[in-house]
């Protein structure tokens, strides 16, 4: 059964729903332009509700050290997920903070997968996400998906996960087509940008487990 991460959680009830229905990972976003952004205080309150068998993942966009330090301390992060972050910077942060480190790789064409290999030795896990349009304020969480057949036959250089445009209706197909060992959802379980829906969270996790 694949692992499943519910990302961009911001309220106790939606966090509790993710945990109750079997999420392996819960994601907290630390990026002010995002409607899912959390302050360190809010993140700390949520993290206190997370049992030890569920991992807390902090989501960052090319963060500075201070942002990372505050978030790691507040939310007791088990892992850091880095978007738009160069491999050498990813490697440096992984060494500096001794946390499991995920590197997001934005995908639109098969050529974009070449970037995955540049994270070998720098990250612990790759997260394949849909490439957002040029100039977009957010690197993800926009409900976009990429062509999953691009992953067919690709030799993954690291453990990996699938993100981008997943929802309760398509996650089972996505897993069947790609063999994803981990799936990651944000906007696909929302009723509005940043507003998670407990019923959609339950439906997504049920579909992923099936």
* Helix-strand string: EHEHEHEHEHEEHEEEH
CATH superfamily caption: Aldolase class I
**Low-confidence spans: pLDDT under 50, at least 5 residues?**
none
The total count of strands amounts to 10
Biggest β-sheet, characterized? 8 strands, parallel
Decide which structural class fits the backbone: alpha/beta
From the spread of the alpha carbons, the general shape counts as globular
Q: What is CATH's topology name?
A: TIM Barrel
Mean pLDDT across all residues, rounded? 94
Which tags fit this structure?
RibuloseP-bd_barrel; TIM Barrel; globular; tryptophan biosynthesis; 23% strand; 7 helices; Aldolase_TIM; phosphoribosylanthranilate isomerase activity; 210 residues; 8-stranded parallel β-sheet
Please tell me about this protein's structure.
- This is N-(5'-phosphoribosyl)anthranilate isomerase.
- The protein has a single domain (3-209), classed as Alpha-Beta Barrel (TIM Barrel).
- The strands form 2 sheets. Strands 7-6-5-4-3-2-1-8 form an 8-stranded parallel beta sheet, with helices on one face. Strands 9-10 form a two-stranded antiparallel sheet.
- The protein has helices at 12-20, 40-47, 65-75, 87-97, 114-117, 171-178, 198-209, and strands at residues 3-7, 25-29, 55-61, 79-83, 100-107, 125-130, 160-162, 182-185, 190-192, 195-196.
- The chain is an alpha/beta fold.
């Amino acid at each position: 059964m694949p692992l499943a991460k519910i990302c961009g959680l911001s309220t106790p009830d939606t966090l509790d729903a993710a945990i109750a229905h079997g999420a392996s990972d819960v994601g907290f976003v630390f990026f002010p332009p995002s409607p899912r952004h959390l302050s360190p205080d809010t993140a700390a309150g949520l993290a206190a509700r997370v049992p030890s068998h569920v991992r807390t993942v902090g989501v960052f966009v090319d963060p500075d050290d201070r942002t990372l330090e505050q978030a790691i301390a507040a939310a007791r992060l088990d892992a850091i997920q880095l978007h738009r972050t160069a491999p050498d910077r990813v490697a440096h942060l992984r060494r500096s903070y001794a946390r499991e480190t995920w590197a997001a790789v934005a995908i639109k064409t098969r050529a974009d997968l070449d970037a995955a290999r540049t994270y070998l030795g720098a990250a612990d896990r790759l997260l394949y996400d849909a490439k957002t349009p040029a100039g977009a304020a957010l690197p993800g969480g926009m409900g976009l998906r990429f062509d999953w057949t691009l992953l067919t036959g690709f030799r993954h250089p690291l453990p990996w996960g699938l993100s981008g445009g997943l929802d309760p209706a398509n996650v089972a197909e996505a897993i069947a087509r790609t063999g994803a060992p981990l799936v990651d959802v944000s906007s696909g379980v929302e009723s509005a940008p940043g507003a998670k829906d407990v019923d959609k969270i339950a439906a997504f996790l049920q579909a992923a487990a099936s």
